[in-house]
């Protein structure tokens, strides 16, 4: 709980994020230009960061949603799928590379115990085996928390972002550690529902779709609603609905913007035929050069551009009026 | 050529049909209430009947389009697919049963030669084998023409509709002859393009779709445009485009009316993705009790009623406005 | 009826065809090398030609099955779909160009009446309008029959194959007449069921498939049985089953040979899921250079070659044995 | 590392599981009849439990794979998808209900601090809010570990299985705590590859499928390989391949056994068309009454039973031999 009286006035300029300070999430947040003029408030968990937005205590929250090594961040997926609706307005892609943080003066051969977030462990496992085969690993609540525990002397070294060193008075002994090539985490900036971010030509649309229980081909039909309109899927992840084993909803990202006709028609198709659909926002894809955004349209399947949709609607009207 | 000067004034009350008089087409035309107040003009061929409409010499033409034994009437399918556009406003279903027409006084044992349209022959083959195994068959240009030739003494008997007997001064010696159970012919009333017939709740929509040449899965995609919107196909027939072996267009009938949202969206899907689509009309299905027309809606797949489409469009607008 | 006693001995070397002499069918038949050593017997109709084979009075029959302008030859499609089974072993493609045959000495300006098979008429309509706008057309039972009637003086000119001139003592006044570019007719050589023609690498497989009555998506599923195995459709034609309006079976040609694994699996899929399937043969595609036959394999979709099928079967066996 | 010399002899009777003692995994393992005669060895992690099997130090490992509230257990999914192959031979479904374990004598009003595995927290959140709104939650490494920490006095109460009370000298103060109805965890027993478990008529088949990178419709095609053979999907979960954002493989369970023809053909279809497929086993579905196993066959789609496959293969052979 951040808020108390008087604070609500300031909530419009406040962004929460998955804390503590010194995490990759904070680093991702600081890549946003507007972060410089916002009050950035670390929260103890993804639900806490998002609930502050729901409660009107913050304008938006930055939380991790997907990691190229570990997969979907289920707390984020589930929080966005349920409860009071939120919407995604931005995404941030951050390359994930770890530094081994130590108290000043520590040498590699002195490191007997290491710590880090459980999610970090599989991403540095090979490096550990090669360089510190005898060091004992213990998990900490976050990478930043691990750094704090090193500061306090509980462990010899912590895996964390290099940027966390200064915050915790540590030194990066080794940098750029990552077992997987191209490891990245994707973060989303979520706020209360409002008009989606403007279309840029290289956008992503997120939604959650619940399928009917009794229908073996329901997932196939979900995909066909996209395929029938030439809309490419970028990500699909099943999540339990909590109603019992074998019941799932699907967290889905597709290419394009809700104001693209092909995307709009696909979404309406899902809305008509699935028990429940939650729209989570359309927003610019990260990692696309601004000058190339319109170029991304080159991948649109023939017959599915806005122009094709408008021409077809005109033709239909002509047919209905007997002028075709 | 019917028209000459002065006639054009009367063309609005003139219907052409595939003649000559006494054919099943005339019998089908006379089942239409308005036929009583129209000038009914037999034409020598399907193209002639339709060209009279195109030339403004008649308001509409009734022509056969499909027979439950012989299949599609290719002259009609091809005439509607090409040339100046026409549209279908009505269909008529006529049970096909033949009478054996003879000159008065002829007995069955006197019948040594029989005639009829080539299309009639396979529909009476079994009856002939059973009752007139030694009679010789020769084809005539139409059933009615066969009756005329019997009148003139060239053959002993003709297969034709019982209603043709009076016209040609003959007697029906045997009636209700038909090898196949439920043999029917479907006729369509075609006019110049105008607003389609009003929706009744039990309608049929006809179109012609050309597929891209180079795409093996193109027919599958055509069908999926219908399936994705829950629109049932009633008939599909391939026709050569005339551009060489292996190039086809498809004459298609689906359930529903062009003003049904699901049908409209399917048609727009075809328009967007196929090189060419010709809309041939939406019109009431024959053979449906007027009181049951709305009941036919019971077969609509969940999520594809007009109500579902409108609700989904509302939802999309809400999402785009940030109010979902 | 050809056969009488003593003839059966010779039936193994007899081929029937759709007569009379001088038709395109005869010309097509004579392109087959073995025709030189067969007795070629013209028959009055497609059913008659095929029934002679069924009755053991001929080894095979050549009949037209498809014309690039007029479409499927329904008599052939229906005869092969029903009755005692027959199989196709060869196909012949014949370019269709007409000659205007006249009695020696006739000049173009003398031609007031022309005749020909009804199917020929739409293929020469434009030529007639341009060169003989005032000539009256009357149909004859076949192109060859029309030539005979010109010989007898009933008409001034007949459209027929140039090769028919000598047979009927006429002269080709104009040759190479054809409104459509690339007009072709496809003929098939049908015999009693036996081992299919050997695989060549560029083959065609023909079948007839009946769909369940009550299933709107049945045609889509038929196509998916092919698509799921990467088998391209070459032709699909709906034909009424004779059981009433709206009931169809489908005459289908696909690329490949029944011994190609992908074709075999698709056929088994149809056999399992459709009420009735009739295999009509696998045979070399006409119009493919013998040296290019294996090259046609280039169009096989990845994962659907025989090699892929065999490798997958091996893998499955390994999995079932616990060795994968 | 369990093994040392001499132990390998006993490895055939040793089962590892995700420890420590007192977890739900141990409770699940003890539901297996053969557990009574096995040495049950708790391991520190899922990878450790499975690696012991790979190393030959244990015959099998029981690990959680899916929870109806929290979703897939990614450590298990990823371990089975990569590294030296393992296979699943059994599954166990365990209802998940927590007990609040305390030191003897503790009353509910005395509980100020509670602990448990992070996964337990969302499953008891509502209960906590209702009954212990002021208690502070801290996560522990496992539910059993939390119980140990209560024993040591670090926390007042731990959420764990009721069965863990005795092990740790605690008392269940409240039992049967679960926010979600029907919460269940599914566990799998994995061993080295061998012949799959025998078919029972109510089976599940697990596999991992990698899709081609460059193909937007690849997931749709994966599903169609199942749908084309009437095989129902039970679970599908995307997992990153580790090769970068946007690259996924799919962990899939379908109904049926690898020796069911429809399943075998679907698997071969995947093998042919996907870059990589790993078969993870066919095994009896848990939670099905043994007497009802054959009854589960009632859900097989017409045309996809083994009988249908065999009949179709016979028909194909007849066609290929000219006997159809």
From TrEMBL, chains A, B, C, D:
Keyword Ribonucleoprotein set for record:
no
For this UniProt entry, the molecular function terms from Gene Ontology, in alphabetical order, are: prephenate dehydratase activity
Q: What is its EC number?
A: 4.2.1.51
Question: Could you tell me the superkingdom of the organism this chain comes from?
Answer: Bacteria
Keywords of the record: Amino-acid biosynthesis, Aromatic amino acid biosynthesis, Lyase, Phenylalanine biosynthesis
Does the entry feature the keyword Transmembrane, yes or no?
no
Coiled coil regions, renumbered to chain: none
Positions of the ACT domain:
207-282
Q: Which reaction does it catalyse?
A: prephenate + H(+) = 3-phenylpyruvate + CO2 + H2O
Q: Which residues form the Prephenate dehydratase domain?
A: 14-192
List the pathway annotation: Amino-acid biosynthesis; L-phenylalanine biosynthesis; phenylpyruvate from prephenate: step 1/1
UniProt-listed Pfam families: ACT (PF01842), PDT (PF00800)
Q: Which CDD domains match?
A: ACT_CM-PDT, PBP2_Aa-PDT_like
Q: PANTHER family given for it? A: PREPHENATE DEHYDRATASE P PROTEIN (PTHR21022), PREPHENATE DEHYDRATASE-RELATED (PTHR21022:SF19)
**The protein's name:** Prephenate dehydratase
